[in-house]
Amino acid sequence: MGMAQKTYYITTPIYYVNDKPHLGHAYTSVACDVLARFMRLDGRRVKFLTGTDEHGQKVEKSAANAGMPPQQFTDEVSEHFRHMASVLGLSNDDFIRTTEPRHIKAAQALWQRLDAAGDIYLGGYAGWYSVRDEAFYQESELVNGKAPTGAEVEWVEEPSYFFKLSAYQEKLLKFYDENPGAILPESRRNEVISFVKGGLRDLSISRTTFTWGIPVPGDEKHIMYVWLDALTNYLTAAGFPDTDSPDYNSFWPADLHMVGKDILRFHAVYWPAFLMSANLPLPRRVFAHGWWTIEGEKMSKSLGNVVAPDHLVEKYGLDQTRYFLLREVPFGQDGNFSRQAMAERINSDLANNIGNLAQRTLSMIAKHCGGRVPTPLHRPQDNELLEKAQVTRPTSLDDAREQMLRCKFHEVLQAILAMSSAANEFIDREAPWTQKKTDPAAMEATLHTLAEVIRCIGIMLQPFVPDSADKLLNQLAVGKDARSFEHLKPEHALQPGTELPRPEGIFPRITLEAA
Ligand code: ME8
Questions:
Q1: 154 burial class (0-12, 13-18, 19+ CB within 10 angstroms)?
Q2: How remote is the CA of residue 450 from the centroid of ligand 1, in Å?
Q3: Are 58 and 18 in contact (CB under 8 A)?
Q4: Ligand 1 pocket: which residues have CB below 6 Å?
Q5: CATH code of the domain covering residue 352
Q6: Does 392 have pLDDT greater than 60?
């Protein structure tokens, strides 16, 4: 029996085009990129999707404010998100826009499935709506006349189709119960469960008071509620409604929908209910990450403290930015961005720890080993350190994989840093600068072991800091085809005598004044 290659389908939220990309969008996208790269290096066939959410009242209003027809407006603004993807070095395989024909077709096909299941009926909506949240609210949910998120609400009364969400309460609770890993982190999962236990009302899924959306099949006076439209993007990109297509068969259901905590309810309640109604498999996991503030303040246009991804990358470097975002805050918790924290993190982890290890080792090899990979001796102390470094012992790579599947980025990074610290202690203990005079063979052995640890660190760092890891591995003359996790194994160790390029610094220090 042939083993089919394992696949991994991961998605970012599709971002609203009313706004320019900022640190928050960059965060979600970088986290997904790291996972996508990790899974590829681990031998999986990956589909990594991102894109833009272009319909609805919020986007229509932004277009009107910009004095442009909505299509032209979305064409322009969605480019900012494509640009963000390239600035952040994202390895996305697709970029979806909800105004594309493939998506309109998929959203209408999903509607028809819900309808065929008997879950759609025509009624009238009278209640509160927040354009900023694109969400309906109960009178009882309002706080001082505003949405619980603080957004303005307006009174809406219009004919509307409804989805029988109330019929899915028990089925959803059963699903959460049977799939404890379907919503992470656990605290968020508990919030979702208590929300659903509190009772579900049928959901208004069409609008009639504006036109910027996907027409409801068979009743074109209605356009689809933007969240029903938007959530379908994940299916569209997997080839839906063609459920016989190779893409659909390889990639649906998605392995992970990564979202911010603000939009968990849509992904963990509405989306699985729609899919159950349509008789389609449910995504394996939704992870809701935390919220960033800037120097202790909420990010907002009025405060003028919105951090643009371009700016971060230009000022601190791409890899430094990516590293900071995933290392600074345990993933799932809220975080605070400050220039000081950024500078400290870059210096302590990248420059002083990993950078210093590479610098010391590679410059000694250049000077004292003729610029070639030195000869190992396999002493007990070498083996002990390499045991730690090579994530070859099945448990360690399994650990990293398990941590990544559960989005514990900071734990994987901590493990890599611990290897680097152990190697720095080894170099101090062995003192190759002394061995050079007393026992040159021991010096060579020490440097070989260190270079080998750096090779493993370089391989493991690739998903997080791809450009720097590439440079690091280039300096060790590791071939491009010898960098997957499979190559962590000792049989792929650096070959003595291999000529190495001239070393150069990879992780520069930054001063706080420059931050
Ligand atoms: O909600 N901290 O799009 P959106 C962390 N179109 N993450 C943040 C953040 C912050 N301060 N600000 C934004 C939408 N984000 C819908 C999604 S999906 C079918 C439709 C991130 O442009 C976070 O991922 O408002 C959040 O969920 C997302 O941007 C919201 O992006």
A1: exposed
A2: 42
A3: yes
A4: 13-16, 24-25, 27-28, 53, 230-231, 233, 259-260, 262-263, 291-292, 299
A5: 1.10.730.10
A6: no
Q: Please tell me the pTM assigned to this model.
A: 0.97
Tell me what percent of the residues of the chain surpass a pLDDT of 70.
98
Tokens 């982190």 -> residue: 185
- Quick one: how far is CA 150 from the chain centroid? 27
| Preceding peptide of 241 cis, ω within 30° | yes
* Cis, peptide link before residue 185, omega less than 30° from 0: yes
Give the chain's domain count.
Answer: 1
Q: Are strands 292-294 and 335-337 parallel, antiparallel or unpaired?
A: parallel
Distance in angstroms (rounded) separating the CA atoms of residues 345 and 352:
10
| Within-domain flag for 478 | yes
Q: Which two tokens stand for residue 7?
A: 């696949």
Residue 356 is part of which domain span?
339-492
CA distances for 324 relative to 341, 346, 383, 409, angstroms: 9, 7, 32, 11
244 within a domain of the structure (yes/no): no
Q: Is residue 230 part of a domain?
A: no
> Which atom of ligand 1 lies at the shortest distance from residue 292's CA?
2
* Rounded Cα gap, residues 278 and 108, in angstroms: 12
Instruction: Determine which residue's CA is closest to atom 10 belonging to ligand 1.
Output: 24
One-character DSSP codes across 249-304: HHHPSPSEEEEEGGGHHIIIIIHHHHHHHTT-PPPS-EEEE--EEETTB---TTTT
Asked if pLDDT for residue 1 goes beyond 50, the answer is no
Rounded to a whole number of angstroms, the distance between the first and last alpha carbons of the chain is 57
The C-alpha atoms of residue 408 and residue 221 are separated, in whole angstroms, by 46
Residue 418 CA to residue 400 CA, distance in Å, equals 13
CA dihedral 323, 326, 329, 334 (to 10 degrees): 130
Ligand 1: residue whose CA is nearest its atom 3: 15
For residues 339 and 141, what is the distance between their CA atoms, to the nearest angstrom? 37
Phi, psi (deg, nearest 5) at residue 34: -60, -45
Amino acid code (one letter) for 46: V
Could you identify the residue written with the tokens 């409804």? 162
pLDDT tens readout for residues 295-329: 889 988 778 889 999 999 999 999 999 999 999 99
